[in-house]
Amino acid sequence: MFKFKKESLVVFIIVILNCILMAFIDGVFSANYLQKSIFKIIIFMLLPLLYLKKHHHLDEIKNIFKVKRDNHSIFKSFALGIGVYLLIVGSYFTIGNYFNFNQITSSLENGIGVNSSNFIFVALYISFINSLLEEFFFRGYTFIYLKKHTSKKVSYILSSLSFALYHIAMMITWFDIILLLLLICSLFVGGLIFDFLDDKSETIYNSWFVHMFANFAINTIGLILFGIL
User: Contact at 8 Å (CB) between 137 and 48?
Assistant: First the structure.
């Protein structure tokens, strides 16, 4: 049976509202990538931190940034990240011809002003900074912090489901429905794996490494689609 406390309900509400707000900004609000990135920093990091500070819960989450010397799983996560990179890029070259990816570059150029001239800078931001923001919010706050106030099962499900559904707004115009559903399911499974990587250490570095390599792979494909590689 799921165990709910007042704080867990608050986290649930914050996560849902923040994801809806960010999805609205990503999918509806006419802003360039820089503006949306600023919104994301505020929504995914500053607002949760302000809430935790106001209610004296910062001590329960500050250790997610602590580097533990005996955390040998970081090396395993690094190796896993390389494997994920090879899997994603390999999949693109293997089955990529069966899907139309041209609408991705068109959507990026027309929607948020990302093009071949600035994609490298955007790719670096996505790989290092954006991945950190998402890991803080979905793994640090929605999983590591939440599991202190409810059952681990609830934390796994909410963290992974919100992580997957959040991406719908930004990807809904990129792919046809079959590929979109496949990607959402993959993101949910990926979220579960990220949670598992951070479960024991209660830091976000393990999942962050894998997340970065996944973004490296996606950005490598982006460089190809924009004709940079």
Answer: yes
Position of tokens 């590689």? 229
* pTM score, whole prediction: 0.90
- Of the candidates 135, 138, 189, the one whose C-alpha atom is nearest the C-alpha of residue 162 is 138
How does DSSP classify residue 229? Answer: -
Residue 125, by phi and psi: left (phi above 0), alpha (psi -120 to 50) or beta? Answer: alpha
Nearest CA-CA partner of 141 in 12, 21, 24:
12
- Judged by DSSP in three states, 115 sits in coil
**Three-state secondary structure call for residue 6:** helix
Coil, helix or strand for 69?
Answer: coil
Residue 124 banded pLDDT, cuts 50, 70, 90? very high
Q: Which DSSP string do the residues of 195-228 spell out, in sequence order?
A: HHHHHTT--SHHHHHHHHHHHHHHHHHHHHHTT-
116 is written with which tokens?
């071949």
